[in-house]
Each structure stands twice: as structure tokens, then as C-alpha cells.
Amino acid sequence: MNHLSLITKREYLNKVKNKSFIIMTFLSPLIMVALFALIAYLTQLNNDKVRIISVLDESNLFASEFKSTESTKYDILTNVTLEDAKKIVQESENYGLLFIPKADSIEAIADKIKFYSEESPSLIVMEKIEARIEDKARNIKLKNSGLDSELIDALNVKINTNLETFAGEKTSKLGGGLKLAFGGAAGYLLFMFIIIYGNMIMRSVIEEKTSRIIEVIISSVKPIQLLLGKIFGTSLAGITQFLIWIVIGGVLMAVVSAVFGINMSEGQMAQQEVLDQVSNNAAMQSEIDLVIREMFNLPLANLMIMFILFFIGGYLLYGSLYAAIGAAVDSETDTQQFMMPLLMPLMLAIYVGFFTVIENPHGTVSQVFSYIPFTSPVVMLMRIPFGVPIWQQLLSVAILFGTFFMTVMFAAKIYKVGILMYGKKPSYKELIKWLKY
Amino acid sequence: MNNLLVAENIIKNYGDYTALNNVSIEVPKGSIFGLLGPNGAGKTTLIRIINQITMPDKGLVTLDGEKLHADHIKNIGYLPEERGLYKSMKVGEQALYLAQLKGLTKAQARERLKYWFDKFGIGDWWNKKVQELSKGMAQKIQFIVTVLHQPKLLIFDEPFSGFDPINANLIKDEILQLRDEGATIIFATHRMESVEELCDHIALIHESNKILDGKLIDIKRAYKSNLYEVGLLTENKVETENYLKEKFELSEATFKTINDEVKFNIKIENGQTANQLISHLTTKGQLTHFVEVIPSVNDIFIQTVQNN
Fold first, then answer.
1. For chain B, what is the domain count?
2. Which residues from chain B sit within 8 angstroms of residue A222, using beta carbons?
3. Residue B257 lies in a domain
4. Are residues B207 and B252 in the same domain?
5. Cα distance from B28 to chain A (closest Cα, Å)?
6. Is the pTM of this model over 0.95?
């Protein structure tokens, strides 16, 4: 046991004291935040440019609908022919020209509406314009058939089904999205962690082989101790990095929101104004309340505990396999052929998670994959927010850890033989032979 | 109990390949035991079994009369042929780590390391990274780490490879001193000439089999072919040669002399003695050179392999 703690300590310190590790740890949150800031800035920049769209409405029915907003200005042309209008728009370098002809019926007009522009217009712009015309056209038709559009709006009932489980927990459709976000984030985080730190273990094993220190070490300690020490030490380094990231991230977020706080509330004000036109403020307020309530309704404690358990289990499982690969080869370039079978189940887990679980969190496929140990850490984590009975979660964890003990035995055998083999790249056939040594 | 280490009937197979076929060795206490054989003969496999890195399929290894168990690693110091250090670690840190793995406390390790670093005059290396050291410098560190925990049994696999002649001599002297202080040493090599001056016992391994073992001096006695190099100043060379041919088996000799002698390798038969040969020789002229041909380990090895 003393050996194991010595090895773990060395592996941990070696990783943590490494220059690139330190740089990565402290720089990547900064890079992330800088990236977000850049994206935010660029988006703003993009919106700063006001689009001017000229409208030539010969029918005189729709022009009043095009009210300028902050980002899009409508320039209503009157008393010009289409040809002149085109010339005017081209010369003024406006975004485009919307042409609504005169016709007998709304349908005939709709068929002939045209949009002229230098380049193809953005889809979002077109959708906005179409929505306005459609709205107006509908109102006109309603009026023509003797119906009052305002009355119809007043008659509309907004339904927001109140969901409740048999246990009495209130949920909502909105909560579904939130659950997905939480589960997805947890699963994806685990996926990334396994790949990054699994690779780190593998490199560390290869390093011991190429530096030829392995035989010196192995004459003092058992290979399994070295293997476990390596996995534990590296994962502790990884957890350290994550904790530092969380702390830095928290601090930076606080700083960023303090600096950009004013901007944000301005943006919200503008949005609020737009929203006021569509729905009333009270409804919006209740939606926000609901999100917050939903967040606290999530089984957060359950999710946290299971995240940690699956995190450790999944990481140990894959970490031991990564170590076996490292032991089998002489250099990192030789690892390719063995990486595929390792990455496949991980990718599968992510795909199953993001497609199948979204569609039906408790469907057969989702269930099966949340028990298979190679996919369960990701898939089960995604399912948990939707409510999985505790016994099922525990069963899955038990299977995961059981499999870990088997893979670590398997990995240790490959490791034991592999670390003393130099100069050749083994085939799968040879690996199987090693298991029998 | 005069043997520190006894390996009995060791068999080790890797799949279809037999690495060791029923090999037994006995290493006497306080000896330097040469484990010899060409590359791939099975030396390293045997050493790994002694170090409990690999387990034998069959056979028993005892250290000081006890069946080998995990605690014995503290009593063994092993310098493998494929050796190295963590490149990005500092020399001192690394030496402390490796010493602790062998069961020393940090304080003990620090104290003994200081002694060895002073002895080799490398105290200022402590905070250097291994990648800054030359190969020979790193080998010195490895040697120190191997002997630091004062093991009863030291195993050196090709210890001199990578050393320049001066440092090789330094290490050789250290090995002899360790032997004088009571350590038993197994010395594995495929370079037979380095064995002659160090080893007092040897075992020859060839193609997974032990083909010869024992005290070096006994083996040499057993392999001597009663051959003598003779240099004789004589007036009548042809007559002398004919005279000797009648009585002994002659062959051509290649040793160097400074006079114009006749030179022969003369083999004496059982029943004849060297004295008889000398008395015959002195009747024919002035004897300038008379040496018994002692077979080198290399000769013995080649001869044994061919006979098998």
C-alpha cells in the first residue's frame, strides 16, 4: 500500500508540476472567456450594421406593416416604377428591394411578391418579411370574410400543460429542456475527461517505456501497483485541474458580468420591448420563475453524487485500457489501431445520449445502454435528470465497477508483458497471446 | 548454507518459445557470479525471475534458504540492461523516489545519497534534470540507486555498456569493493573477456539451456588441453623439430618473441609431465619461452557450444 501511495504521489506531482499542465490550467479558462467575449463582441458588431430594405408596395396594403427597428430600416418608396426603384436601390447600396405588385386578390399578390438584392438575402431577414406579410394578409382576409381579427386574438387560449409526476413533483416541458441540458453537459464533460486524461495515462506509460526506467521500477514494485498508481495520480491531477477551472471560471464570470452588466441589462430591455408587442410581461415573468423552480426541482443532489460515481468508474475503466494500450506500443504513433475500439463505445454513448435519450429517456435502447459499462457513464448521466429509480442507478454503477475490476486485471496482464517488450508493434493476435503468459 | 541464491530446474515458456529449459544455478555467498551467454540465450529471463518480475512456469528459487517472496526485493539490487531514468525529473528527487520504493525512509535515503554523491563528486547534480545529463552521468546515478539500499544480492546486467573506460574502471572497482564488504554479485554479460578478471564462478547459458557452470578456476582446469607454448634457441631447427615430433604432438605457434627461435605449441599426453618436456627441450638448445596455455572463457564457451 505504501508503494501505491508513493507512486500515486509521484505521478500526481509530476503531472501538476509540468509546465504545459500549469499553462493549460490557468490559460484555458482565460482563453474560453476571451472567446466568449469575442463572440459576444462580434455578434454585436454584426448587428451594428443597419440593414436598409426598400419597399415598393403598389398594392398599398402592406407598406404600413414595415416599421423600422434598430437593426433593420424600411424605406418605403412611392410614385416610382419598379425599374426606377431597382436603380435607386442599387445606387444607394441598400440591402434589397421588396416589391409587392398590385393585383385583384391577396393570392394573386402573394404569388408575385419579389425580393431583389445584390446577394442572396439572409434567411432570417426573409422569414421576418414573410411573417409580416402573412400576418397582414391573414388580417385582410379575415376582415373581408367579416371577422374581427382582434376578437379572434382575444379568443385565443394559451395552453401551457402543467405536468406532474405521480409522486407529486411538478414538472414542465421547459424542465425537459433543462434536464437535457444538465444531463448532456454532465455526459459530455465525462466524455471529454476520459479522452483527455486517458491519453495522459497512455503517454505516461509510453514515457516509462521509452526512457527505459520501467524495468528498474518493476523490480521494486508490482506492475499492478504501478498501473493503479498511475491511474490514480493522473486522475487526481485531472480533478485538480477541474477544480481550479471551476474556481477561475467562477471568478471570471463574476468579473465579466460586473463589467458587462450594464450592457446586458440594456440588451434585455430592448428584448423586453420587442416581447411586449407579442405577449404580455406577466406571462414572461412566470416563465422565468418556472425555469428557476424547475432547476431546483431537478434531482441535483442525486445528479451530483451519481456524476462523481460514474465519473470515477468510467474514468478508471477507460484509464486502465488506455494504460494497456500504452504498454503494448513503443511510441504514440503506434497507438492508432488500438484507439479505435476504445473510442467507438465512447462515441456511441455520446450519439445514443444525444439522439435516443432526447427522444425517449426511458426507451429500451436508452435503458440498455445505461447498463453497458462502456456507455453507461455517459448515457446514465443523461437519463438521471429525467428520473431513474435509485436501484437502477446503483445497479449500473455496480456493473461499471465490476467491469473495472475485470478490465484492470486484463489491462494488468497486457501491461505486465508489454512494458518489457521493446521494438515491435504487436498485433491483436499477439496481445491475446500475452494474456496467456 | 553457503549459497545465497539457488535456482532449481527453472522452466519458462513464452507461448511456443522456451526461454529457459530446466536451468539451475547456485550462487555462493560473497562471490561474483558470471552469468554468461550470447544475446537471447535466456540470461535476462532468468534475472527477471530472480527479481520476481516474471514468474517461472516451473522450478524454485530460494534466497538465503527461503523461498522467494515479495519482501525479498529489499534484499536485491538490480541494474537492468535496458535502463533509464525519468527524463523530466530532477536527479535528487528521482533518486529519493527510487530509494523509497526499495523500502528506505526518506531520511535514510537522503543520508546515503549524500555519501555516494560525495564519493563520486557529483553533489552539484542534485537539482539537475536527468535530460541535462550525459548517458554516462545517468548511468552513475543508476548505479548509485541500485546499491543504495545495501542489498545482499546485486545483479548487474551488462553494467559496463555505455561507460567510457575510465568510468567503467571506477564502476569495476566499486563492484569489487561491494563484494569485499560482503555483497554477492551476479554479473550478466555476453562479453566474455570482461568476466575473466571479475568472476570467480560462472554459468554458461546457450539457447535456453545451461551448458556449463562452476568455479571459474575449476572450469579452466577441466578445459585445459595440456598445451604449452615453447620457444627454443637452437642451431639445428629441422633436427630439433623432428626430434620433438617423435615424442610429442606439435602444432604451429603464433606468440611473439624477440629472438630467432623455433616456436611450437606442444601437447603432452597423459602420463607425460611438463618437466619431462623441459628436459627434452634443454638438450636441444636454450629455452626462452615456456607457458601453459590456459583457455579463455571465450574459448571455453565456443568449445562447449560446438560440442553440444
1. 2
2. 70
3. yes
4. no
5. 22
6. no
Nearest by CB to B80, from A215, A222, A433: name it.
A215
ipTM for this prediction? 0.79
Closest alpha carbon to A234 in A202, A275, A262: A202
Contact of A253 with A259, CB cutoff 8 Å: no
According to CATH, the topology of domain A51-155 is D-Maltodextrin-Binding Protein; domain 2 (3.40.190)
Is B306 domain-assigned? no
Q: Are residues B10 and B44 in the same domain?
A: yes
Note whether B181 and B150 are within 8 A (CB).
no
Q: Is B235 left (phi over 0), alpha (psi -120 to 50) or beta?
A: alpha
Looking at the complex, does the CB of residue A424 fall below 8 Å from at least one CB of chain B? no
Using the beta-carbon criterion (under 8 Å), do B88 and A14 form an inter-chain contact? yes
Residue in the block written with cell 546486467: B157
pLDDT at A296: 63
**Would you state the cell numbers that stand for residue A261, as one nine-digit string?**
452588466
B198 and B243, same domain (yes or no) = no
- Residues in A closer than 8 angstroms to B87, CB to CB, are 207, 211
Instruction: For residues B146 and B266, state if they share a domain.
Output: no
B307: in domain: no
Let me know: does A319 contact A196? Beta carbons within 8 Å.
no
Domain end: B167, B189, B221, which one?
A: B221
Within a domain: B253? yes
CA–CA distance, B225 with B5 (Å, rounded to integer): 32
Contact of B71 with chain A, judged by CB distance below 8 Å, is answered with: no
Domain layout of chain A by residue ranges: 51-155, 174-436
- In a shared domain, residues B86 and B203: yes
Per CB-CB distance under 8 Å, the chain A contacts of B52 are: 219
* B84 closest CB neighbour out of A7, A213, A219: A213
Host domain of residue B53: 3-221
Are B140 and B238 members of one domain? no
Question: Which of the residues A18, A212, A216, A226 would you substitute to probe the B interface, choosing the one with the greatest number of B C-beta atoms within 10 Å?
Answer: A216
Q: Quick one: average pLDDT of B110-130? A: 90
Nearest to B98 by CA among B88, B86, B87: B86
Contacts of residues A422-426 at CB distance under 8 Å and 24 or more positions apart, as own/partner, are: A422/A209, A422/A330, A422/B82, A423/A330, A424/A330, A425/A329, A425/A330, A425/A334, A426/A328, A426/A329
Alpha-carbon radius of gyration of chain A = 31
Q: The C-alpha cell of A310 is what?
A: 460514474
Q: Which residue of B has its CA nearest to A205?
A: B86
The predicted-structure confidence for A43-100, as pLDDT tens digits, reads as follows 777 666 677 888 888 887 787 778 777 777 888 888 788 888 888 888 887 888 888 8
Separation CA B138–CA B131 (nearest Å): 9
Mean per-residue pLDDT, B58-82: 89
Task: Determine whether the interchain pair A216/B15 forms a contact, defined as Cβ–Cβ distance below 8 Å.
Answer: no
Query: What are phi and psi for residue A309, nearest 5 degrees?
Result: -65, -50
Report the b/e string of A346-377 with b at 16+ CB within 10 A: bebbbebbbebbeeebeeeebbebbebbbbbb
What is the CB-side half-sphere exposure of residue B83 using CA atoms within 13 A? 26
CATH number for position B58: 3.40.50.300
